[in-house]
Automatic annotation (TrEMBL):
This is Transcriptional repressor. Keywords: DNA-binding, Repressor, Transcription, Transcription regulation, Zinc. Belongs to the Fur family. It comes from the Bacteria. The keyword NADP does not apply. It comes from Hymenobacter glacieicola.
Amino acid sequence: MALSTDHFSPSPDAAHLRARLSQAGLRATRQRLVILESLLTLPGHPTAEQVHRQVVRQEPSISLGTVYKALDSFVAAGLTRRVAAAEGTSRRYDADCTEHHHLFCTDTQEIIDYCDPQLDTLIREFFAAKGLQNFQPHSFSLHITGSKLANK
């Protein structure tokens, strides 16, 4: 079981960003490069607005609409995932596309990554035993809402 504490990631180099976009079948435009870099370096699960605030520091002409379009193309290409926010009002994005779950703290609005192979096994076994008719699960992600307990 692992909880991820999010920190700022070091900036990936341009070659790495270009390669990621190319592998996903996307052209490496200047706008996409800056947006992807911001998404990868911002802590946690940023909103499009947070990515936009970061992006305009480098490219002041990039609009919020462009950020949304780029993030949506990243989701469609498998570069990122869209995550529902705890408050349910804004879309948040997760650059980590590995299998993991999300814990939503209703007090802080924080989204915490949670990995537990034993839980994943239980979920797979549960669905295998249920034999869902005409449906084969390929991946899953739990979204659990709660509150952090204060350390005593």
